[in-house]
Each structure stands twice: as C-alpha cells, then as structure tokens.
Write the structure tokens for this entry.
Amino acid sequence: MTRPLCIVMLCGDAFGGFGGIAKFNRDFLNALSGSDSVHQVRVLPRTITGPAGDVPAAIVHEHKAAAGKWAYARRVAACLLRRESIDIVLCGHRNLLPVAWFLARLKGARLVLVIHGFEAWRPGKSRVLNWLAGRIDALVSVSTVSAKRFCAWSGFPMKDVAIVPNCVDLDRFHPQPKDLALLQRHGLGQGPVIMTVGRIFSNERYKGFDEVLAAMPRLLGRYPTMKYLIVGDGSDRARLEKKVRAMGLSDAVVFAGRIEEAEKVAYYNLADVYVMPSSGEGFGIVLIEALACGIPVIGSSADGARATLLGGELGRLVDPSDSGALIEAVAAALAQGRGKRPAGLDVYSEPQFKARVTAWIGQACRN
C-alpha cells in the first residue's frame, strides 16, 4: 500500500481568511484532510484576518507564519529543517512560487500550483515568476478558461492540469424571504433589487461594477424604483461613489460595504437579480452562491463565468461591453422571478468537490 502523503501548502489565506480564494483553500484543505491518501497537511498562510474556526485534526495550521515576511521565512525554514518528509508542496498563489519551488526542490517534493483567475492569465512583471510557472510539476485550476490561458503563456502542458471548480454549501445557501430589517437598513424600498458582490479594488475593475452603473439610467427608465446593491469594500470604492454622484444615481445605488460571512445568505436573498458582467473572473463563486439562494444570475460570456454557468444552463450570459444586452437580460431575469434553484446546481455541491479532490490526490499518489 502506498504511504499516505505529507503535504505543505503555502497560501495567501485560508482558515481565518476572507473572500473566494480563502474559501476555496479551506474547502480544498478540508477535502485533503478527509482523504485516506493524506497523512498530514501543514498550512503556511501569509495573512489571517479573522478567527480560524474549526481546523481539522489532520491539518497543522501555522498561524505564526502570518506575522510578516520574516515570520513566514522562519516557518518555511522550519519545514526544511524537519526530518519529516514532504511529498507535495501546494503553492496557492503564483507570487509564492519562488519559496514553494525552493522548498519542493530541497525536500524532493512535487510542486503543485493552484490558480484561480485573472492573476494567472498572462505573464507578470517578474521574469523569475514567469520562468518558474513553466517548471511546476502539476497544476490545479478552478476553471478550464484559467488553465488554458495559463498554459498558453507558460508552456505548461494541459494534460497535467486538474480542474477543480469551487463549491457551495447547498444546505446553508438556500432561498428565503427578503429580510425586512435589511431592506429598511439600506433603504431598498419595495422595488426590484439587482446586486453585485465583490471586492472593490482598482486592480479588480474587471468584476463589472462600472458596466452595471453604465446601464442604470436606462434600467431606471424601465424600473423607476430599482436599486443597485453593491456588497463589498476596497480602495476603489471612493471612485465608484464619486461616479455614482456624477451620474445622478445616488438615490438608486446603495453601497453596503463589506459584510460578515454569516450575513451572506440574507444579503443574497435581498436581490431579485444577481448581475456580474465581469471580464476577468476565473470562476466566480458568488454566482453559484446566488444561484443556491434561488436568485436569477447574469454572468459574463467573456471569462470563466461562461463555464461556471454551464454555457448558459444555470444563468444568463452577456457580453460585458454590450449594455443593451445586459438591460434585456435583467428584464428577462426579473420576469423569471426569484426563489427557485436551477436544475444542475448539484454539480457544485460539497460532496462533488470532495470527490474531485479525492480523485486528484489519488492520482498524485500514483505519480
């Protein structure tokens, strides 16, 4: 019988982290910890922004690694000095590749890179990072779109890529009535609500906030009481708020700010339509979370959302540059109504995710 694997994961954040990538890392690590093929996973996060929560027994969460660059370097050095073997080094972000490559080569381990979206679609400014990208041993990608774009510039073979899409807890994310207290808190009234959830940073303007704002004057012509609810925060929020004021949309656009994970289900259920005409999403976990809450979804035909929505089976697809198409899609989604999950969403269930990770790690044991 093959010896169970010892794995080290270097990542931005996971347990105690916030956002879609942190959630993917937690789900991936939880799936690994439940596999008979895995003895132990040691996790070195760069940042921790909240409580770590329940960490499985098979995972060693090196929370002290998140205390700065030197602390991180010390924890990596400790991995090198331990007598225990390392079979796989998982690199959760391409910026960590130099450290991950160094650790993997000195310990005789396989180097596996995990990629998500826009950050992996083209070469970066660092020649070292670009060179290392083609010298990994395996690749895990949340979507075929991200995998193909990464392989096109890095030269890494597609045959060595494992596609592991994000997942959603279908027991937790479910349709429910609109929360009257939240409606009142944000002044959403009784009219239709469209929503986008995401981080608001200047380097992530691909998420589609500007595209929805561009369509709002014409949408208000059809639906005078419509509100656009933007959930999230970041350094680019001030620019968007200024743009909203300049467009005369202050009464129609609501900035909810960053919300806690526990509030997400209630917020999704405020929406009548979820809109994200993005141009750089590798997957878009918010799309499947909204779908699980029974909210009709409009995604982009120009990025990974096309695959996430199964080519249009789970939601509507629009060209993010076509404002007219977005308006018509919103009208159709409002006519469809909210409160019912689409058939086929089970493909993104947690059991399906665990099965994919188990199959991947089983293959890794044979290599």
About this structure: The chain has a mean pLDDT of 94. The longest helix spans residues 350-366. The chain has 13 helices and 13 strands. The longest strand covers residues 38-45.
